[in-house]
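Lecture 7, part B: from sequences to assemblies.

Below are the input chains for today's worked example.
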Amino acid sequence: MAEEKKRRAVATQTAAGIPKFVRGNLAATLKAKEEGKKVAKAFIHDGQDEIMRAMDIVPAWGESFSGICAAKRDAEKYLQKAESDNFSRSLCTYATCHIGFEMIREELGGVMPEGAPWGGMGRPDMILGNGQLLCDPRFKWPQALQHYLRDVPVFVTNMYYPPWDPNIDHHEQEGFYVRYCTEELHETVRFCERVTGKKMDWDRLAAVVELSDRTWDLFVDTYDLRKAIPTPMDTGDAMNTMVPITFNIGTQEAYDFYVELNNELKQKIAQGIGVANPEKYRIIWAAGLPSWFALNDFQYFNSKGAVFPVEVTYRDHEKIEKLDLPKTDDPLEHIAWRWVRYWTHWYDAARKIPGSTPKVARIIEYIGDYKCDGVVFHSAFSCRSWHAGIIHQAEVLRKVYGDIPILIMEGDIVDISSYNEADTHNRIDAFIETLDAYKNKKRN
Amino acid sequence: MAYYAGVDIGSTMTKVVIVSDRIEASLIGPTGPEHRKLANKVMEDALNRANLRFKDLSYIVATGYGRINVPFADRQITEITCHAKGLHSLLPTVKTVVDVGGQDSKGIRINDGKVVNFVMNDKCAAGTGRFLEIIADSLGVPLQRLGELSLTAERATPISSTCTVFAEHEVINQLANGEPVANLVAGVHESIATRIYSLVSKLQIEKDIAITGGGAKNIGLVKALEAKFGSPVLVPPEPLITGALGAALLGKEKCEKALRDGYTPTRSKEGLQEAKIFS
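Predicted structure of the full complex, as structure tokens:
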């Protein structure tokens, strides 16, 4: 039974439209089954979005499904189901929540499990993974899922970027990786053509890719507006407004969403309307995904006059910025360039700060750009790839940047058993007091 | 003379300290389910001990887990900030504080009485006073005797379980196997010290190091922590009251600053009464 939870307020009107996107994405998978379209279990940030959009393949986002279950505080039954088949609780709970859901559906002979959030998600006709470096579930999740969906074909694209190494010139190496990624994407298209029985419309793909680029640039411009003091939107909303760029890239709806958000933020800035009134403390969300079941904690920060004008969540090491990409006639090569340049750990900024690392250099730049007074990390125990090394980052940050209040929150993305609201708020209270002392010290 | 009070409602004990230019009175009483709403009683007793009336107090700060439920307090401040302030007033050379309370343990890095950084273990009982209570109960040894008893141990029996419940089971099994009680208690202290050290190591530990909270009253645990830190661990004269003392001092600081700035701090309109939230 889902826990009844107070509805979370959003700072921007535009963000209030996000549930429509999320529901729409789930509903699209169900409608696709009725219309005979193919549904692909897919992952965000795998470089396959535009291929799917151009071939009318409807993505079924596992991370989104599990995030919704978490936000509704109704993931436990799926986590327990996966655990009953020996999936450890310490594995990615995005994966185990979704796998638990699919296990139950298969046991019901394909019938949607009762109480599935927002009508549930359509059964996939194919599973697309990516053996990329972001996290191991990218290729283990598809394998594990096929164990239960035996008739569903799996394709794991292998896309890499230059290794983490401050001693190599990544700019020299990137061309090789782009060629490799391009070839992998062509193979992905051939797989999708086999499953759908349709040929790729290359002109349509080029148009989708061009729309994605425009949406990305608009997204960057829009998020840059949050530098304003007071900030018109903080991470509490940004964790919602990332939905179109993350799950709907390459669609006109996503582009239109950021037009609307951009206009609203400009209007708020002109009127001096901020998330917190008064805005006392500006904090960077310096690592990690949030606990989707506890997004209200952002409002708890806001109630203390603390705002998050910036977060690092959706890029591994570098800042969110516009990408300078070489011209090419091959849309897949364009995606490959975007991929490699987006994910490579460039070290360019880190080399300018001795003793630093790309992640820490990014935090330092953001502290300056967004005039932040403190740093909050969130350590989600089940997400090793994105959350390991947080203590190291905090230590390096203190060493190379100096004195700044840092809070490391502990929880998970989906598993609520890791969370205690009273203690979390107690930590936030203590952190706010530390911030206050730090600001007073700086003033004096 | 102006008087200021700090009230620390912890998970197991409620502490009140009244200060002027010195500590006028301090009192420690149980929090417990029945007493939880009776912070006013502990305050009354402390006032009696100091020979003061409630209206003599210029400002009251509440801290600890129950700080929200002290209707007569003028301000709430977290125990992290209060421990730092209180300990600094007693042991000014201390830079790292380990607080072992009834239901959590904390590490606090301080500089000039201000919090620089902190870590908390609030998800597992294994590094807290609760662990000691459970083990004391299992071994039939009064909690207060655990420390001295452990100093007579020939060796510390390793306790490998990291969960309090399983550790209790392990201790009972070892007891059944004939392991001396003193060795088991020493092993338990080493186990707690290992967990606390692991927690506090997330901070950049700087000397001097001090311990507060109920755990500080256990000499065996203090020795085990000293071995882990490789450094003496200082213990304030009454380690239970540092939070309440810090709260009182922060209230005093706020009032004195307000007076210097030419205004009077806002006071709670509530008199000395029970917390209504529990009724």
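Note for the exam: Chain A is about 50% helix and 10% strand. Keep this in mind when comparing with the next example.
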